[in-house]
Design goal:
By secondary structure, the protein is an all-alpha fold. It has a domain of about 100 residues. About 55% of the residues lie in helices and about 0% in strands. It is built from four helices and no strands. Helix 1 packs antiparallel against helix 2, helix 1 runs antiparallel to helix 4 and helix 3 runs antiparallel to helix 4. The longest helix is centred in the middle third of the chain and has 31 residues. It is rod-shaped and about 125 Å long. The protein starts with about 25 loop residues before the first helix and ends in a 7-residue tail after the last helix.
């Protein structure tokens, strides 16, 4: 054994950087996905909404039921309201010939030109303009306080 052994010290090695989370699990991606779902259809009709739906579905910050609600529910409400508007217009025209008072019944239905008439397409367009952005904004509201899993 040598009298004075040399001690060799290795140079310090930096710790490997922590792995970055995938982009789909960041809050920025989730916010961009929700905003694309809400307003993408206005910027690029139809295709923008589909891109937003795909982005929302691959984000990991929302639960599956939240994604389904945000994507499907506006169309379910639209279909139900379209059915109700069609049913109510059928009931209106089928009861137009009856009279509740005295006198002769009206031969035809007269629409008041001062009152706007909403057809089924008007209601469907209004619901599309209101419910689809509302679903994306609901996703943003659900995102509060969540962190990547």
């Amino acid at each position: 054994m040598p009298a004075n052994p040399a001690i060799v010290v290795a140079a310090p090695v930096a710790a490997p950087p922590a792995p970055r989370p995938p982009a789909t699990s960041t809050r920025g991606f989730a916010i961009a996905a929700a905003l694309t779902l809400s307003f993408g259809g206005f910027l690029v009709p139809v295709l923008g909404w589909f891109v937003g739906a795909v982005l929302v579905s691959i984000s990991t910050l929302w639960k599956t039921w939240e994604k389904v609600v945000a994507i499907i529910v506006p169309f379910v409400f639209g279909a139900v309201s379209l059915f109700l508007v069609q049913f109510m217009s059928f009931v209106e025209f089928s009861s137009a010939g009856s009279s509740s008072g005295t006198g002769t019944p009206a031969d035809e239905v007269v629409n008041n030109p001062l009152l706007p008439g909403f057809s089924a397409w008007h209601v469907l367009l209004l619901l599309g303009f209101l419910l689809i952005p509302a679903s994306g904004l609901w996703l943003l509201w659900r995102l509060r306080g969540r962190v990547a899993r």
